[in-house]
Amino acid sequence: MPAVRIKDHWREQRMFDQRALVAGALMALATVGLIVRLYSLQVINHDKYAELSQGNRVRNEPIPAARGLIVDRHGELIAGNQPAYQLELVPEEVTDVPKTLASLVEIGLVRSEDVNELERTIDSSRRFDSVPIRLRMSDEDVARFSVRRFEFPGLDIKTRQTRFYPNGGLAVHALGYVGAISESDLKRIDRAAYAGTSLMGKLGVESAYEKELHGTNGYREVLVNAQGRSVERQGAFVPDLKVKSPNPGDDLVLSIDLKIQRVAEAALAGHRGAVVALNPNNGDVLALVSMPGFDPTLFGRGITAREYNGLNNDIDKPLLNRALRGTYPPGSTIKPAMALAGLTYHVVDPAARKYCAGSFHLPGSAHIFREYHNEKHGYVDLDDAIAHSCDVYFYGLADVLGIDRIATFLAPFGFGKLTGIDISGERPGLLPSREWKTKAFSKPADQIWFPGETVNFGIGQGYLNVTPLQLAHYAGIIATRGKVWKPRLVSAYRDGEGKLHEVAPQQEGEVQGVSAEDWARVVHGMVGVTQHGTAAAIGLHAPYTFAGKTGTAQVFTVAQNERYNASAINERLRDHSWFIAFAPADEPRIAIAVIQENGGAGASAAAPIARKVLDAYLLDADGKVKPPT
Amino acid sequence: MIYEEVTSGSRTRRTLTGAARVLFALKIDGPLVIGLALIAAYGLIVLYSASGQNMPTIYRTVARLAIGTVAMLLLAQINPNFLRRLTPWLYAAGCLLLLVVAAIGHIGMGAQRWLDLKLFRFQPSELMKLAVPMMCAWYLHERPLPPSWPSLAALAGLILVPVGLTAVQPDLGTAALIAAGGALVIILAGLRVQVMAGLVVLGALGAWAGWGFMHDYQRKRVLTFLDPQTDPLGAGYHIIQSQIAIGSGGVFGKGWMNGSQAQLEFLPERSTDFIFAVIGEEFGLLGLLLLLLLYVFVVSRAIFLATQTQETFARLLAGSIALTFFVYVFINAGMVTGLLPVVGVPLPLVSYGGSSVVTLLAGFGILMALYSRRKLIGS
Fold first, then answer.
1. Inter-chain touch A42–B144, beta carbons under 8 Å
2. Per the domain annotation, does B9 fall within a domain?
3. SS3 for A8?
């Protein structure tokens, strides 16, 4: 029988009090637990959370540094910065993106082939970030958009700094260009330093001096809310935000003289070829032309695939920097060096006259080495041989010298190696030698150096390959009687504070062992070229004496029994025309190399171009020789 | 000796000041109401900042506090015996309304918590926060304590029906609070410690078994609670941001309206469930200690009042109301500081919104009614 329980009020009251006490104690315990937790969060780990909270609210917004200007040696602007209008779209403010783009296509502000790409870009952007829709708008584009802008909520015209080349394609192969930073660029550069920068140097000076031109970007701390949107202030929250100003890039002063550059480009216009003019006394590049060129602005505004393919597939290869990367046989322009070698090794008596019957052959060989155009020079001494470019004389000289002495002697003149010019892309050309041939060919039969190859070498044909820059460099070495200066495009820079720093020219050594008389003999021969020799027509009435040497580089090998007939063969198989020169001959201020591809003989095509450049550099407005500076 | 008590009461009354006399006449407990008023005032200051200086939010909150205060004052006048007799009807009506809400929700194919009474929206589950402990106390009022096994079974049923109906809305936070209100009545009624321990063990076993039956997303939710960093942008985001807010506040806080986490909206639900973190960020550890002190004071005073009541119904109900208030505070603070999982429980009298302010103040009104009549019910 279960016990009957009765309510015991007194006992219940006591039990309740007890339980209430326990509940109070538990409450105290729970509160202490909370306080311990708060102590851990707010005191022990305060620093960590304070940092996290700071990281939450502040975003660094980059302030791009102004890219350094590039000016020529007289301060004329070559590359600058220009605000450009661009159309930008804020995705969250546009209700119907495809429809908006379609309307833009209709009024001609967006090309229909770009629509898909743009839609992808817009989709992958943050909703409140401005997306560029069209870069570098013309005034007409701006006007066309402005009258209809009420139809385009969320679209606006913004101004951004872009690279500006006031002379278009002038000196583009020296200058290079800037273009959008590519995936592969991103791997090389410090991304943090480039935050906020969309363009970087791609070629030429723009690329080689990228670090100096770029400067240091600054940043501005921006208050952001949880959506990442930048806000002025939120509630009463007063931001304490840092700003670091950018350091603008250095302005570069090029050694290039735009006046000379213009003359050289105008003279070569319409042809393929290159002109390199140097100051032989310090390596300053006065003009660097590679024709045809292109407009660097295309790359800065975002070159289209069609435009790029057009340039890249052009048969005239406008993107090829012929001055640095075009390699050609030097032809007869090598003869002064050969003459110097012969004199230095005492294998030639400069006064001895040799008979030129128009052809040469090695003893015991049936192979005939012909004179250019089958000329017959008759009796010639060294001076005549240079002035009239007598091949037979130099065939014999080379044969006597032999390949080993030739290769050794030519090396200090910079053949077969980079000149070290301060932009990249240069090719070394080729100075052949016995060792080179052993390495270059796999078949033992081909590894042997043949005497006939030495003979050809004597007139700059065969394996020997040079760039126009190398030949100008070489002309400069002869001009200074053996001083080797490293060619350079940048002669000074102006730092962010406006202070000008000169870049010291670098001498790379000197050609050793050549006597002053021998230099003088060869220079005399080269002066003869422009006075009574192959380029006499060009030197006519020049108010200064100048030393030169013509050259003809064979493109098309003429068979043994045939004659070269320029008019009969395809234009692109015609010989390349070379001319090297320096002036004034006794106190040279400028050395130059000119090549006109498929121009034929050196005297007819390249030499007149060189003369124009020399005149432009040396003469004042009245046609008088300017005094040396 | 009823007569003597009354005379002694009148002697006491003569020594009272004018204000105390008014409070006594209104059946108001001064210290409790002052504590509640301080919490509400503190809450309004914080809410102004947490809402992004939104005055309409403040107006609406003041209106709710006013309605709650009126409810509290009116309920304080009620005769506990009348309240006790009303209890079963109130409970039944509440259950019925929960069913109606569930039916509407089912028809409307969505979550449904409230009835639209045109004038205002009414959440039956809020009513049940009071009706369930009242019902439990009513059930135990005539019975000997500690409750017998059959009583416990009946009480379990009384609690689980409304809890289940609320949980399916789904409103797990409110369901848990309703269950807590009922359970506290039973515990205060003298539930044996061994039984409590047994229930805890059963609960642990149930959790272990439940893990096996859980969906992946549910497990993920549990794991996120254990380590918020596993899902920093999803479920863990709330808790990480709220810990950053509290932690970055330090001892003295960043200053009123200067909390970057709160003001820049990194802290989600900043004016509602996570307002505790705003206090931590802007007023620091000291601000939170002040708040906890106020809460502990209010709950202690309420427990004291409960111990002073003389009837089973009054005692159990008053005790439950007092302790439930602390459970609210602890669950919310525990959730915001990362001690407990994220369940939608507001910080009482401080969080913006809902009818919980009215319910809470109504509860305290009932508590004061129970307390103030203690001497009129003689033993």
1. no
2. no
3. coil
Name the fold adopted by A61-147+157-249: Penicillin-binding protein 2a (Domain 2) (3.90.1310)
Q: Provide the residue range defining the domain that includes B125.
A: 27-374
Quote the CA–CA distance of A381 and B66 in Å, as a whole number.
122
Condensed to tens digits (0 to 9), the pLDDT of residues A328-365 reads 999 999 999 999 999 999 998 888 888 888 888 888 77
The CATH architecture that domain A258-618 belongs to is 3-Layer(aba) Sandwich (3.40)
In chain B, the residue whose alpha carbon lies closest to the alpha carbon of A225 is B264
CB contact under 8 A, A53 and B285: no
Has residue B55 been placed in a domain?
Answer: yes
> What pLDDT does B135 receive?
94
Residue A281 pLDDT: 93
**ipTM given for this complex:** 0.88
What is the residue-wise DSSP string for B274-324? THHHHHHHHHHHHHHHHHHHHHHHHHHHHHHHHHH--SHHHHHHHHHHHHH
- Per-residue model confidence (pLDDT) at position B52: 85
Is B10 within the bounds of a domain?
Answer: no
CA distance B292 to A27: 11
Give the 3-state DSSP-derived string for B84-148, with helices as H, strands as E and coil as C.
HHHHHHHHHHHHHHHHHHHHHHHHCCCCCCCEECCCCEECHHHHHHHHHHHHHHHHHHCCCCCCC
Contact by Cβ (8 Å): A613, A596: no
Instruction: Estimate the crossing angle of helix B172-188 against helix B124-141, to 10 degrees.
Output: 20
Comparing alpha-carbon positions, the chain B residue that sits nearest to A24 is: B300
**In this predicted model, what pLDDT tens digit does every residue of B63-121 receive, in sequence order?**
999 999 999 999 999 998 999 999 999 999 999 998 888 887 655 445 556 666 555 56
Is the CB of residue A467 less than 8 Å from the CB of residue A374?
no
**Separation of alpha carbons B218 and B203, rounded Å:** 18
Determine the residue type at A531: Q
The three-class DSSP label of residue B264 is coil
Average pLDDT over residues B26-51: 93
Q: Which residue has the tokens 């498929």?
A: A598
Is residue A528 within 8 Å of residue A550, measured between CB atoms?
no
Both structure tokens of B4: 């003597």
- Tell me the domain boundaries of chain A: 61-147+157-249, 258-618
Per residue in B285-315, pLDDT (tens digit) is 999 999 999 999 999 999 999 999 888 899 9
pLDDT of A11 higher than 80: yes
Task: Report the DSSP beta bridge partners of residue A71.
Answer: A77, A253
Sign (positive or negative) of CA dihedral A398, A404, A410, A416: positive
Bridge partners (DSSP) of residue A593 are A276, A580
**Number of structural domains chain B divides into:** 1
Three-state DSSP at A384 gives: helix
DSSP state of A592: E
- High-pLDDT (> 70) share of chain A, %: 91
Question: CA of B199: how far to CAs of A587, B104, B183, B205, in Å?
Answer: 110, 35, 12, 10
Assigned domain for B158 exists:
yes
In this complex, the residue of B53, B243, B307 whose CB is nearest that of residue A20 is B307
What's the CA gap between A152 and A87, in Å, rounded?
Answer: 11
Interface contact flag, A7 B310, Cβ < 8 Å: no
Residue B6: its pLDDT value, please? 47
Q: A62 — alpha (psi -120 to 50), left (phi > 0) or beta?
A: beta
A22-36, A375-389, A552-566: least confidently modelled range: A552-566
Shortest alpha-carbon distance between residue A261 and chain B (Å): 58
In this complex, is the C-beta atom of A230 within 8 Å of any C-beta atom belonging to chain B? no
Q: Are B247 and A46 in contact (CB < 8 Å)?
A: yes
- Please write the tens of the pLDDT for every residue from B239-264: 888 999 999 999 999 888 888 888 88
- Which two three-digit tokens encode residue B204? 């642990």
pTM: 0.67
